[in-house]
Design a protein that fits this description.
nucleotide-binding; 14 strands; binds magnesium ion; transmembrane helix; GTP binding; EC 3.6.5.2; 8-stranded mixed sheet; hydrolase; binds guanosine-5'-triphosphate; alpha/beta; Rossmann fold; 3-stranded antiparallel sheet
Length: 463
């Protein structure tokens, strides 16, 4: 804790104390939802599963003292448990959360409490939150059991609901009140771990996802792109080896050779056709449907534009977009990240960028490598037109992929694990689509359809 004095408007010295608080508990019990409700007053039906940890701050007043809470919302998934000590080390308070509709999460909460009692600061204030109290009809953990366990272990206890706000502010306030607000509590970690003393957190009501182990320097505004992307790659690598949950919540950034083959298969066919038809010589613009080689060029170029647009949308778009995407086949429906066929405004811009990059690369490559006698008919207008159509087809291709994904690919939400899945199952809530095509099949089909549309339409509209 840090504590300092500042002059209030009335000239009296108002004290500010700063505490580190950590939230622990099984995945999907509602840790992030509780923090989000407390800090921003919001609740998301499809709350993304936390990766690593998220950081937020919130300031409350307790008896004329401004209490600044640094909230470390940890990831509950099993694979992240080894990271937890980094977050509870030096914490002066902890909320251990369980889901009242799931008895296993209560057992896991008890294990967290035991670990905190053994390894965290000796005077840490611990609260036990029985979340999802609005689902009392499905209750598996009795209030009396949790209450008596909390009393035995000296814990603050409340049942909460991030959905209805029930007891959310109260549990944070109860902890804030119990925290010792004197200077000499500043070494609350008992010399065991790293304290956040002296760090000045200036940003309130913001959240920042952090790379595990990178908790230092917590001043910060919005989630940095680099950090989120790094997380994305980490999560992707984990997913590669995760055979239990086939999750596409964070799409695989590291692509398998099959995925690469499926993305490039149609473009390769056009490239081979082109080489055969031109006897491996070059042929440049303008596109002319009387020349077979021109047709192959269009096919190759626009298939590549489609793949690049779709890839950028799914890789950059999901990381950069701030809000949940919407289904292309039903734009009024907000769906979780990773749903097949879900699009966002940022994702569309990324698709356009993907097409633009391909068009530009083609023009630059042409001007460098193509023999001048083959460029004889190529004008600046042709190049600009081509660049424009490539850009547009980056979006067209990506949209075709999304329509196929939203209809012929299954997307579901596994509430228990808080992830988006691609296969139907007993506890899976269907979001969209039917389990007909795989992701790779959709990629092949969308690039083929895009190239066919381009081959059909471009010779007509290009002058
Ligand atoms: N009905 C109901 N649903 C809730 C409540 N709190 C959270 N949820 C839902 O439970 C799911 C999981 O919530 P999260 O906040 O992501 O859970 P978490 O503990 O942060 O999960 P991890 O980040 O994976 O550790 C989301 O779909 C939420 O909408 C609640 O109080 N009531
Ligand atoms: Mg979370």
């Amino acid at each position: 804790m840090t504590s300092n004095n500042r002059q209030s408007a009335t000239g009296q010295a108002a004290r500010t104390c700063q505490f580190k608080m950590v939230l622990l508990g099984e995945s999907a019990v509602g840790k992030s939802s509780l923090v989000l409700r407390f800090v921003k007053g919001q609740f998301h039906e499809y709350q993304e599963s936390t990766i690593g940890a998220a950081f937020l701050t919130q300031t409350v007043s307790v008896d004329d003292i401004t209490v600044k809470l640094e909230l470390w919302d940890t990831a509950g998934q099993e694979r992240y448990h080894s990271l937890a000590p980094m977050y509870y080390r030096g914490a002066q308070a902890a909320i251990v959360v369980y889901d009242i509709t799931n008895a296993d999460t209560f057992s896991r909460a008890k294990v967290w409490v035991k670990e905190l009692q053994r390894q965290a600061a000796p005077n840490i204030v611990i609260a036990l939150a029985g979340n999802k109290a609005d689902l009392a009809a499905k209750r598996q953990v009795e209030v009396a059991d949790a209450q008596s366990y909390a009393e035995e272990n000296g814990l603050i206890f409340m049942e909460t609901s991030a959905k209805t706000s029930m007891n959310v502010n109260d549990i944070f306030m109860a902890i804030a009140k119990k925290l010792p607000k004197t200077q000499d509590t500043s070494n609350a970690n008992g010399g065991r771990g790293r304290s956040n003393d002296g760090q000045s957190i200036t940003v309130s009501r913001t959240s920042t996802q952090r790379v595990p182990g990178d908790e230092g320097g917590c001043c910060g505004g919005n989630t940095s792109f680099a950090t989120r992307y790094k997380f994305d790659i980490k999560q992707s690598k984990i997913n590669e080896n995760d055979h239990q949950i086939e999750t596409k919540k964070y799409k695989k950034t590291a692509r398998s050779h099959i995925q690469v083959l499926c993305n490039g298969a149609i473009a390769c066919l056009y490239a081979i056709g082109y080489c055969c038809k031109t006897n491996y010589s070059g042929l440049s613009l303008p596109i002319d449907n009387k020349h077979e080689s021109s047709i192959y060029t269009i096919g190759f170029l626009f298939t590549t534009a489609c793949c690049c647009g779709d890839t950028l949308a799914s890789e950059l778009g999901t990381v950069l977009a701030r809000s949940n995407p919407r289904l292309l086949t039903n734009p009024f429906r907000v769906v979780p990240v990773g749903t097949n066929g879900a699009i966002s405004f940022v994702g569309c811009l990324c698709s356009l960028l993907g097409g633009f990059i391909i068009g530009l690369s083609y023009i630059i490559g042409n001007s460098i490598f193509c023999r001048p006698d083959h460029m004889i008919n190529t004008s600046m207008i042709n190049n600009i037109q081509l660049l424009f159509y490539c850009t547009v087809f980056g979006l067209v291709g990506s949209s075709i992929d999304s329509i196929l994904g939203a209809t012929l690919q299954f997307s579901g939400y596994d509430r228990e694990h808080n992830v988006t899945v691609q296969k139907p199952g007993p506890s899976i809530e269907r979001i969209s689509g039917f389990h007909i095509l795989s992701n790779n099949q959709v990629n092949i089909l969308s690039s083929l359809l895009t190239s066919m549309i381009a081959i059909w339409i471009l010779p007509i509209i290009m002058v």
